[in-house]
Amino acid sequence: MAARRIELMLCTGTGCVAGGAFRIKNVLEEEITRHGLQNEVALVPTGCNGFCGQGPLLVVMPEKIFYGWLRTEDIPFLVQEHFLKGRPVKKLMFTPPEKKEPIPLISDIPFFKKQMLIVLRNKGIIDPEKIDDYIARDGYTALEKVLTSMTPDEVIEEIIKSGLRGRGGAGFPTGIKWKVCRNEPKTPKYVICNCDEGDPGAYMDRSVLESDPHSVIEGQTIAAYAIGASHGYIYVRTEYPLAIKRMQKAIEQAREYGLLGENILGTGFSFDLEIREGSGAFVCGEETSLIHSIEGKSPEPRQRPPFPAQVGIWGCPTVINNVETLATVPVIINRGADWFSRIGTETSKGTKIFSLVGKINNTGLIEVPMGITLREIIYEIGGGIPGNRQLKAVQIGGPSGGCIPASLIDLPIDYESLTRAGSMMGSGGMIVMDEDTCMVDVAKFFIQFTNDESCGKCTVCRDGSDALLEVLTRITDGEGREGDIEFLEELALAIKDASMCGLGTTLPNPVLTTIRYFREEYEAHIREKRCPAKVCKNLIAYWIDPQLCQACLICKRECPAEAIYGEKHMVHVIDQSRCTKCGTCLDVCPPRFAAVKKLSGEPVPPVERGMKVERKKKTATPLQEQSSA
Amino acid sequence: MAKLTLDELRRRREQARKSIYLREGEFRGRVIVHMGTCGIAAGARAIVATFLEELEKSGRNDIMVTTSGCAGLCSKEPMATVEMVDSPPVKYVLLTPEKVRKIFAEHILGGAVVAEYALGIGSERAG
Predict the structure, then answer these.
(1) pLDDT by residue (tens digit) across A530-574?
(2) Domain that holds residue B102
(3) Chain A interface, best mutation among B3, B26, B33, by max A CB count within 10 A
(4) For chain A, what are the domain ranges?
C-alpha cells in the first residue's frame, strides 16, 4: 500500500448517523473512486467527534480542516475542490453564529479549544472498530504495565492516590471501592461496567462506547486484575444498538489478540467479559437494581449495606464502575497518579464529560477539567445562547440533579460545589435554559419522568412522586393554592429521607432547587395566575394587537384550530374560546408587523370584530417600527 | 490469529503507529503539488503519485503531501512547492516523475535544494 496524503475522519456517532453520515460515507467513497483518488485519500469512520450540533461532520487530516452540516449533494464538489485540487471549501466550514468568516481549523474552533481530553483522548482519531488503531495510540500499554510490573495492591494505591471518583453520579472514590472488594475473602469476584445511561439529554457513556470501546475494556481488565476478578459484564441499555455492536466487535477483537480470555499476554492472568443488555428501565442505573437485572430478577433496588463491593452479583463481591471511570483508568496508570491529581480541584480530580444541550449555540459533548466555571462552558465552549437571549438556569445531573440559576454562573464545577448548590454531578447531562423556560414546568417535566421510572418499591418514592406531580400540574394549570409551595418542600424532604435508593433520594432535587432559586415564579403562578416565562398553556393567551395588525391573512390561514376571524382590510381577532394556544399565529406573523402578543396574568383586551385596519404610514421603515416596538 | 505475547503486541503497536501518523503526526516537511486545471492537464496527478510512492519507500512519517490550487504560472506546470522546517520554501517547475525522485532524495531526505529544477526560493507575498 502506498502512502496516503489525506485521511477523512468521518464522524459516525449516533447523532451524525441519524443525520445521514452513512449515506455521506457512500457518496464520499463513490466520488473518491470516480476521481481515482482511492490510493491517495482514505476514509476513516470514527466515533463521536463531540460537536454534534454541526453533524454530519468530518475532519480532514493532516490539515485538520473541519467541515460540518454536510449534505450528500455537497460531496461531489467537496471531493473535487478540496481533495483533488487542494482548495478547501469555505462554505462547508464552521462559521460561528453572527460571524462572517469561517474558522477552517478544528484546533482554532473555540468549542474544541478549551477542552481537555483524557477519557475522549481517541475521539475522532481512531476507527472504533479497529483494535490496531487503539493499540497505535498507546492502547493496552497500561494493561501491559499493570500485568508485568505492578501488584494488585499497587494498582489500587495508584488509583486511590489519583483521587479518581466515580463518574456515574455519586462520586465515590474508585480506589476505595476496589480496595473494599479486594479485601473481601469470598470468591469469585466480578467487575461490572455500568452503561445504563438514562438521563434525558445525556449521552456521554454511549459516546465513549461508540468512539473508543477498547479504552473501557482495558480499564475494566485493569480493575479485574486489581480486585482479583476473572469475569465481568458490560451492562448497556438496549436502546444503544450502535454502542452494543461496536463493543461486541471490540470484545471479539480483544479475545482474538489474547487481551481478553485465558492467560492474557502470557502473564497467567485470565479475565473475560460479556455484554448484558438492559431494557431501558431508569432505575437499572442504580447498582443493586442493575445487579438484579443481570441476574434475571425484577430490577428493584435493595437496602445497602452490604454494598455490592461486599455482596454483589450472584452473592459475590462486585465492583460496579461507570464507563467514564473505567476509561480514565488506563491513562492514570500510564501517566501516573501525580499527574492526574494535579488536574481539577482540591476534592475533584481530573476531567468530566458533559453533554451540553438545550438553549445553547454549540450543542455537543465536551470534556473539561473539574473546577471549570459554568460561564466558561456556556459562553466560551458553548458559544452562548441562540438569539443572544438571557441565560436563566442550567439543569445539571439530569432528573436527579437540580437547576443552577444564572446568578451562580461563576460556580466552579466539582462534586462538592454542585451538591452545596442543591444539584449534583450526576452522569453529566447539562441542559441550558433561557428566559423562555418556565421553571415550574421544568420541575414538572422531571417529576413526570421520575414518577414514570420509579420502580414502586418504596411508598414515598412511588406515591410521593405522584403527589408532587399532582401539585405541580395543578400549579401550572393555574389552580395553585396558598400552601402548595410549603407542601412541596415538606413532601420533597420526606421523599429524600425515606427512599431506599438513589432514584428516590434525588428525585425531589429539581423541585427543591427551582423553589430555592425561583420561588417568585411559583408564587406568580399561584397568586397572580401568571406564568412569567409565558409557557404554561392555561395561564397564557394569544392576542392580536389591533394597532399593529395589517390584515395579511397569514395567521388566519395557518391557525389549525380555525380560531382566527378576519378578512382583507379587517383587523384579525383570535376567538379565545377556540384557541388551543399552539403559538402558530405568533410564529407566522411577519416580524415587520409583530402584531401577535403572548399575554399572561392580565385580561385579554377586547377587540371588536370588523374593525378596519389602521394602515401604517409609508415613511416608517420596517426596521424602525421593530426597534420602537 | 494466535494470541499475542507481550513482544508481539509491542511489535504490532510499532506497525500500527505508522498507519495513523497522518492523524497525529508531527511534520517536518510539506510538499504542495499545484493542482489547478492547468496542473492536472500537465500531469500533476502523476507527480502526486510519485511523491507518495517515494514517501512510502522512504518509510518517513513526518512528511505531508498536499495539493493546492493553480500557482499562477501555468506554462511551467506541473509545479510543486517543497517546504522543509527551518528553511525557505522552494518552487520546482516542469516536473516529471524522474525529477520528483531526485528532488525527494536530495532535497527532502538530503536537505540540498535541487537548483536545476527550481524556479526560485521563497514564496509570493500574501496579501
Answers:
(1) 999 999 999 999 999 999 999 999 999 999 999 999 888 899 999
(2) 26-121
(3) B3
(4) 6-110, 131-341, 351-434, 439-527, 537-628
Residue A173 CA to residue A167 CA, distance in Å, equals 10
| Residue A608 confidence (pLDDT) | 82
DSSP secondary structure, A24-87, as one string: HHHHHHHHHHHTT-TTTEEEEEES--S-GGG-S-EEEETTTEEE-S--GGGHHHHIIIIIIT--
Which residues of A, range 250-289, sit inside 8 Å of B by Cβ?
256-259, 261, 263, 265-267
The answer to the question of residue B127 being in a domain is no
pLDDT of A146 reads 96
User: What is the count of residue pairs from A and B with beta carbons less than 8 Å apart?
Assistant: 111
| Range A6-110 has CATH code 3.40.50.10860 | no
Q: Give per-residue pLDDT as tens, A137-193.
A: 999 999 999 999 999 999 999 999 999 999 987 889 999 999 999 999 999 999 999
Cβ <8 Å between A256 and B1: yes
Mean of all residue pLDDT scores within chain A: 93
Q: Which residue of B has its CA nearest to A81?
A: B69
Per-residue pLDDT, A627: 47
Instruction: In whole angstroms, give the CA distance from residue A590 to residue A515.
Output: 37
> A472: which 3 cell numbers?
405541580
Among the partner-chain residues A62, A256, A258, the one whose CB lies closest to the CB of B22 is A62
Greatest Cα-to-Cα distance within chain A, rounded to the nearest angstrom: 91
> Domain A131-341: which topology?
Rossmann fold (3.40.50)
Percentage of residues of chain A with pLDDT beyond 90 = 86
pLDDT mean across residues, chain B: 88
CATH no., domain A439-527: 1.20.1440.230
Q: For position B113, which CATH number holds? A: 3.40.30.10
Assigned CATH topology for domain A537-628: Alpha-Beta Plaits (3.30.70)
Domain count of chain B?
Answer: 1
Cβ neighbours of A261 in B, within 8 Å:
3
Measure in Å the smallest separation between the Cα of B33 and chain A Cα atoms. 9
Contact B79, B68 (CB under 8 A): no
